[in-house]
Amino acid sequence: MTPEYNHGIPGVLKNALDWASRPFGKSVLTNKPTLAITISPAFTGGVRAQAQLNETLLSIPALVLGGPQVVIANIGSKIRDGVLVDQDSLSFALAALQRMVGRVSSLRLIA
Question: Is the dihedral of CA 48, 50, 53, 56 positive or negative?
Answer without folding.
Answer: negative
